[in-house]
Amino acid sequence: MTQVEAPAWTSMTEDERATFDRDGILVVPGVLSESEIEKGQRAIQGAYERAQEPGGHGLNATGALHQLSAVTSVPELAYLIDHPTAFKYIWSLLGWNIHIYHSHVDVHPQIHEKQKEWWHWHQDGGRQNREIETDPRPMFSVKLAFWFSDVSETGRGNFTVIPGSHKTNWLPGPPSRGVPWPQPEGATQITANPGDLVVFDRRIWHARSDNYSPVTRMGAFFGYTPRWIAGRDDTAGLPQQEWFDGLNPVQKQLLGHCPEGDGSGDHAWGHYPETTPLYGALKERGLLDSSIPALIP
């Protein structure tokens, strides 16, 4: 369950940070190797086939799969959650006291009938967007989207965003989601090849477009947040799984289980950096940049 490849750990660049702050999104080409792409495709295809079996997760009305708790559901994808080339964006932005609070695997085959109008635009975070009063609201989490299919052309169920909208609390929309309404100004379909990565601020206004093409859309999404925010993923029973022991300490932390932690709220609050695996991994590599507040112990 460890990495397929092991590139050196480095932080995101200042140019990348500036672009992310401006746009709320980065598209990073060629993050995964061919073997990593093939590994992910096999794993996600297997999940899609299992979902169709009796007692499986099940597909929606268009035959698509949206399966939560990505690693719990598809353990073969554990190599993605701390992949150095992708993970650097997470700890560079959020620091070391983090976990994955929300993840999912998506498979969207071709839709053959025109779908009803439905307003899909949203920010991630659920009630965070109702209950936090600041303007703009805090970032809180960053999401990694790994692509395992060819969405290099629009019209393939592409991830659609409004660049720069992450600092806008409200988006003008219809009185109810089922009312036909024009796309918001600036809406952009993101194109990507298999192995590409999309990094995005949870606050960016985004939606999934419908896939009417013959190319099946396939991706894995991982949302990271401070450990003092409760997780949505179902990870409580992971230590009892045979494959869990094969994970490294950072992967276990990201899935909600710090090997050296005592399980207390104080540990999740970051009061014990010395026993938090990601802190140790960054310290060992000399990457605890004191100019980044989230990296300061």
From TrEMBL:
GO molecular function (one): iron ion binding
Matches recorded under Gene3D superfamilies: q2cbj1_9rhob like domain
SUPFAM superfamilies tied to this protein: Clavaminate synthase-like
Listed Pfam families: PhyH (PF05721)
Name of the protein described by the UniProt record: Phytanoyl-CoA dioxygenase
